[in-house]
Amino acid sequence: MPRTKLPVSPHGGSPDETEAMFYEALQKGDVDLLMSCWAEDDEIVCVHPGGSRLMGAAAIRAAFEGMFAQGSIRVTISQVHRVQSMSSAVHNVAERVEIMLPDGLHAAFLIATNVYHRTLEGWRLVAHHASTGGSPEGISGTETSQLLH
Fold it and tell me: How far apart are the first and last CA of the chain?
């Protein structure tokens, strides 16, 4: 299946733009848009809370297709902590995930780390690792940014 490409800006976009597109894809349940955020590299990796390590685009796509079979995923991110260099960026975010189950709407609070590399096509995701974060009160910190030169 062909991958949808993120638009390539003259300056390569930004990790923030790729991250916004990733979370938009979750909201829409759009696996092609979601996969366009990932680097075209066999070594990309994704870990969902309590899950095993998914290596490569095929495994990551299959996992998200399974999740989207249940519907889109409502995710709101906050408390973004950024560390960025010329060719890589690491974002640690608090995620509020809402899912509809047979007994109603449930919310989970996760902590996720997203790692981006600057590629010829722009900034692309190379790793996403999410773990349970407890409750919103247990997620501390404020939005910060750090640029490494």
Answer: 38
